Amino acid sequence: MTFNGNWKIDRNEDYEKFMEKMGINMVKRKLAAHDNLKVTLEQTGDKFHIKETSAFRTLEIDFTLGVTFEYSLADGTELSGSWTMEGDMLKGAFNRKDNGKLLTTTRIVQGDELIQSYNYEGVDAKRIFKKY
């Protein structure tokens, strides 16, 4: 499957601005911008297993496309939502539990890069990963 593999963060675009809009304090934003995030993605049909490893935590997530699940960001923000597949793009729609506001995210593989894009209240950001 397209997403399968081990991915390591290569660079960010507007990620700190996005985190600020999310309400993440400056210290956590600075740390998160240099988290050395590694993501392992395994897709089997409509089921995904994801392992995220960073300087701060290791987390494993299992989800099925179209099925709502709970997720906590590294800063503790709790979300509820689901992923869907549109063509070659994973699209996620998650509502924050603390204020109900929508966070959208996409994942797409382009060449040897996995591009994860975020939008929260009109602020866009990207995290670009390379296979390793």
Automatic annotation (TrEMBL):
Residues 4-130 form the Lipocalin/cytosolic fatty-acid binding domain. Keywords: Retinol-binding, Vitamin A. GO terms for molecular function: retinal binding; retinol binding. InterPro entries: Calycin (IPR012674), Fatty_acid-bd (IPR000463), ILBP (IPR031259), Lipocln_cytosolic_FA-bd_dom (IPR000566). It holds the Pfam family Lipocalin. Belongs to the calycin superfamily. Fatty-acid binding protein (FABP) family. Cytosolic CRABPs may regulate the access of retinoic acid to the nuclear retinoic acid receptors. This is Cellular retinoic acid-binding protein 1. It comes from Pogonophryne albipinna.
